[in-house]
Design brief:
This protein is α+β, with helices and mostly antiparallel strands. The chain is built from 9 helices and 8 strands.
C-alpha cells in the first residue's frame, strides 16, 4: 500500500508540471523552436512512461486484491469452524451435566465420586478424574472463545484493507483519465510547434492535423468540466434525499422505541410470575443467541464490504454469472453475446482485445466494433460521444457510465433489469446496479445502430 501511495504522489507531480506547452512566438528562430518542440515531446514521453508504470502498478494491485480475497475466505472458514467446535463442546458439557442431574439432581459429580468409591485410593482417582474432565472442558471453552475473538479481529482488519484497495483503484482510474487529457493537450502543442518549423508545403498538410488535435483536446477538457458539474448536481440531490430518508428513519425509530417501552413493561409483569427453573433456561437460551448474533454480525459486515466497487458491486451468485438472455435488437444481442465470451477473464489495465484481456472501455469498444459499431476508446470519450438517455429509457445494449468524483472513469454494458456486464477489478462479470454501484452512476448513453 505504501508503494501505491508513492505512485499516486508521483503521478500528481507529473500532472502538475506537464501543463499545455505554449506555442513559441514568431520572433524565435527555427533552432529555438526545435528546442521547444524537443522539450514538449520529452514531456509527452514522460507522461506515456508514467501511464505504462501505472499499468504495471495495477498488476500488483490485482495480485494484492486476489490474495486479500483468499485471506477473507480463509478467515470466514476459520470463524465457521471455531463456531462449530464451540457449539459441539457446549453440547458435550450440557449432556454430561444433564446425565449427572438425571442420576440425582442433588448430587454433584464430586459427591457421586465420593459415594461410589470402593476405597480411599479409588476415591482419589475418581475425584482427580472428575476434576480433570471439568478443567479440560472449561479450558477448551475459554481457548475456543479466545480463538473466535482473534479470528473476528483479523477478519475486520482484512475488510478494512479491502476497502482501502478499492479506494486506491478508483483514484488510479481518475488519474489515468486526467493524464489522457494532458497527453492530448501536449500533442496538440507539439503539432503547433512542428508547423512553425516545417516548410510552407508541410504547413498546409499539418494545419489540418493541428486543428483536429486542438479540437479533440478542447472537447476532452470541456467534457470533463461538464461531467464534473453533472456529478456535483447528482451528489447534491443524493445528499438531500439521504437527509430526508434519515429524518424518516429517525421518526420510525422513535415510534419503535416507544412501542418497545410498552412491550417491555408488559413483559416485566409476566416475567415476575415465572419459576426459577424457567428463568435459568431462558438465560441459557439468551446466552447462546447472543453468541450466534455476534458471529452473524461479522458475516454481515463481510458482505457489506463486498458490496463496496468490496466487490465493486452487489454480491452475485453463480447463477448471476451465466451468459445473459436479453430482449433487444440483433445488434444489441450481438454486442452482449460478444462481451459474454470473456466472462470470468481477468481485468487488464489498458487491454482492448482478447489476446491482451480487457479493461472496462476496452471490453465495450471491442464488443461494439465486432458488431459493426465504432465507438471511442476510453470511458470518458464514450460518454462524450454517446446520446444521453434516462435510466427509464435504457435498453439492453446501451452503456451505463460511472464516476468516482472527478470525470467518467468506468463503463459497463446495460443488460436490462438493473444489471450490467462490465470489466472491473474482479474481471469480466455481471453486476447489479443496485447498492454499491448506484452511488457512482453518472448516466446512460446510446450509440446509433444499437437501439
Amino acid at each position: 500500500m505504501k508503494k501505491t501511495r508513492t505512485m499516486a504522489v508521483v503521478l500528481t507531480a507529473v500532472l502538475a508540471t506537464t501543463s499545455l506547452y505554449p506555442v513559441a512566438s514568431d520572433a524565435k528562430t527555427s533552432t529555438q523552436l526545435t528546442a521547444d518542440k524537443k522539450e514538449i515531446d520529452a514531456q509527452i514521453k514522460a507522461l506515456e512512461q508514467e501511464m505504462t508504470t501505472m499499468t504495471q502498478q495495477f498488476d500488483t494491485y490485482v495480485a494484492q486484491y486476489d490474495a486479500l480475497q483468499e485471506e477473507l475466505l480463509d478467515s470466514e472458514a476459520d470463524i465457521a469452524v471455531t463456531k462449530e467446535e464451540l457449539s459441539d463442546r457446549q453440547q458435550i458439557i450440557a449432556k454430561r451435566m444433564k446425565a449427572y442431574q438425571a442420576q440425582d439432581s442433588t448430587f454433584s459429580p464430586y459427591v457421586e465420586a465420593f459415594l461410589g468409591a470402593d476405597s480411599f485410593t479409588d476415591l482419589v482417582t475418581r475425584t482427580l478424574s472428575v476434576k480433570k474432565i471439568i478443567d479440560a472442558d472449561e479450558s477448551m471453552r475459554i481457548e475456543q472463545h479466545a480463538q473466535s475473538s482473534t479470528f473476528k479481529k483479523q477478519h475486520t482488519a482484512l475488510v478494512k484493507k479491502e476497502k482501502e484497495l478499492e479506494q486506491q483503484f478508483q483514484m488510479m482510474q481518475q488519474q489515468y483519465e486526467e493524464m489522457t487529457v494532458k497527453r492530448a493537450e501536449n500533442k496538440a502543442a507539439s503539432l503547433a510547434l512542428k508547423e512553425k518549423i516545417a516548410t510552407k508545403k508541410e504547413k498546409e498538410k499539418l494545419a489540418k492535423k493541428q486543428k483536429k488535435a486542438a479540437k479533440q483536446a478542447a472537447k476532452l477538457k470541456q467534457m470533463q468540466q461538464q461531467q464534473q458539474e453533472a456529478i456535483e448536481k447528482a451528489q447534491a440531490e443524493a445528499a438531500a434525499q439521504a437527509a430526508q430518508e434519515k429524518a424518516q428513519a429517525e421518526a420510525a425509530t422513535a415510534a419503535q422505541q416507544q412501542a418497545r417501552t410498552v412491550t417491555t413493561d408488559n413483559t416485566d409483569v409476566a416475567t415476575a410470575t415465572d419459576t426459577t427453573e424457567t428463568a435459568d433456561a431462558t438465560k441459557t437460551t439468551d446466552t447462546k443467541a447472543a453468541a450466534d448474533t455476534t458471529i452473524n454480525t461479522a458475516t454481515v459486515s463481510t458482505e457489506g464490504g463486498n458490496a463496496g466497487n468490496t466487490n465493486f458491486g452487489a454480491k452475485t451468485t453463480d447463477a448471476d454469472q451465466q451468459t445473459p438472455t436479453v430482449e433487444g435488437s440483433a445488434t444489441a444481442k450481438g454486442i452482449i453475446a460478444e462481451a459474454s465470451k470473456y466472462m470470468g477473464t481477468a481485468y487488464v489495465w489498458g487491454g482492448n482485445k482478447p489476446s491482451t484481456g480487457f479493461d472496462c472501455s476496452g471490453l465495450t469498444s471491442w464488443s461494439f466494433k465486432e458488431n459493426g459499431v465504432t465507438i471511442p476508446r476510453t470511458a470518458a470519450q464514450q460518454y462524450a460521444a454517446s446520446t444521453k438517455i434516462s435510466a427509464s429509457e435504457a435498453k439492453a445494449g446501451d452503456l451505463v457510465f460511472f464516476s468516482y468524483g472527478k470525470g467518467v472513469a468506468h463503463v459497463g454494458i446495460y443488460l436490462g433489469d438493473g444489471r450490467m456486464l462490465n470489466s472491473q477489478n474482479r474481471g469480466v462479470t455481471i453486476d447489479k446496479l443496485a447498492g454499491h454501484w448506484s452511488q457512482y452512476i453518472v448516466g446512460y448513453g446510446r450509440f446509433a445502430g444499437v437501439n
